[in-house]
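quick one, 196 residues, struct below
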Amino acid sequence: MSGEALKLEIRKGAEEKAKQAVADAQAKAEKILADAEFEAKRILDSRTLDAQRRLEQVERSEAAKVRMECTRKILALQSLYMERSFEEAEARLKSLPTSDSARYSKMMAAFFAEGSRELGASDLVAVVREGDRKLAEGIARASGVSISPERLDSSGGVVLRTKDERAYFVSTLESRLLKAREDLRAKVTNTLLGRE
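---
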């Protein structure tokens, strides 16, 4: 083999090695690029998922705030209307003894009967307001109850007690309204909030 052929052979071998090195480098570069693209996609997907989760969390939080604010407004309105209703009911009850005496007489008779049953005693004393004394005397005679000289400070109704003052039955218009208010408050709230 001559020197020229040897040079040619060496050059040919060097070119093949150089081509192989370039091909290897290009393959490594493509693998690095593919790995980098994969990693970039993984990071982007992960960040996108995190952003979606944060957005959903913010949306849930905002929705909860809106629901709470709506509930607060509903409760405030419910309270306002309930108070107005009870104020109206109280005004009507206070005027009942004079505005509808027949109905009031029936109510008083029912209050006496209920109190007599509740106390279960025969020696009862009734305390009534001054304006109801005449009406109460008629009801008391029929039910065997005596009328106390004391005066009831109320819009109407009766307080019955045993003569020994150990047991009382309070049935004033105010006490009835207070009980109705307590009973209805929970019912109205549940109805307004859709719980019933």
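The radius of gyration is 46 Å.
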